[in-house]
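Render this sequence as a predicted structure.
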Amino acid sequence: MNERIDFAFLDSGTGGIPYMLALKEKCPNAHCVYLGDTAHFPYGEKSPKLVADCASEAVNLINRLWNPRAIVIACNTISVTALDLLRARFPNLPLVGTVPAIKLAAKLSKNRKIGLLATKATVSNPYTDKLCADFASDCTVFRRGDSNLVRFIEEKFFTSTKDERKEACRGAIEFFAQNDCDVIVLACTHFTHIATDFAEFAGKGVLVVDSRDGVAKQALRVCPLDENADKKTFLQDCAFFVTKADSRAIEEYKTLCKNCKIPWGGIV
C-alpha cells in the first residue's frame, strides 16, 4: 500500500457505512476504509468478553492491512461494551467510539419520553444506564433491543421493498408509540440505513436521531487532517471489506456498494 489510511471504520456488518460517509462529507480529503466483521456478526448477542475478543481480532486485522491513523468503532455495542479495554490493548492507536445519542435526545424531547432502539447488549449495558443518568435524568427512556431488525437490515434491507421495511420496523414503531415517545434514538449503527424510512413510519411529531454527526466531528478532532495537503489518489478509498461472506451475501454487499457509491473491496 502506497499511502497510510486516515480512518478505518469497524462494525460487525454494514451498519457503520453511513458514519463513514458522514465523515467524508465533512472532510472529503480523508482516506477511509471500512471493515465489516461479518465472521462474528452479530456482536449485539455476544457476551462482553466475546465482544472484546472479536473486536480486538478485527482491530489487529485492520492494523495489519491498512495501518490507519485512527479507527472509528462504528458500533454502539462494541463501544459501550469494550472501548476502554480496546484502548488499553492498543494504547498508541486513537479509537473513536460510537455511543447512543441520549444527550441530544434529552435536549430535543418536549414530553421527556425518549425511545432507545438498539441491540440487546447495548440496551442492558451499564454504560447506557450511565448515559441516561448523566444526560436524561428527568426523562423516561423506553428501551427496545431489536435483534430481528438488525438482521433484517444486514441481510435483506438492500434489496427490500418499502412495505417490507415498514413491516420490519412495525414492532419498534408500535412500542415507542404506545409509550408516547417524542424522540427516538437509533442506537445501533445498522439502524442509520433505515433512518429516513423509520422517521416516516414513526409519523409527524416524532424526532428520530443518531450519532453520525457527533462521531464524525469527534474523529476529526482526534485525528485532524490538513485539507490543503496534496495526497495521492487512493483507489480503495471508502472501500467496503468483510471478513466472511457467501455468494448471496456478496451480491447483497455489491448492491449496497452501488447504492452508496463506494467500492466493494472483498473478503479479507
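Summary. The chain has eleven helices and ten strands. Strands lie at 7-11, 32-36, 70-73, 95-96, 113-118, 140-145, 183-186, 207-209, 239-242, 264-267.
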